[in-house]
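pasting for ref
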Amino acid sequence: MEHWEELLNPHVLRQNLISASIFIFAYELCRTYIIDQPRTFFTDLWARARAVKS
């Protein structure tokens, strides 16, 4: 029971929520960068190849 009281302490809860928010933001930023960069590279490459053929 003491663990829950400590966890639900407003100061501790606020710090935990801020840390979780920063972690989720960093994860989504990295995931977006890792997925979108190769996609952009390859789709631009294919679009240029089509333009040259036309």
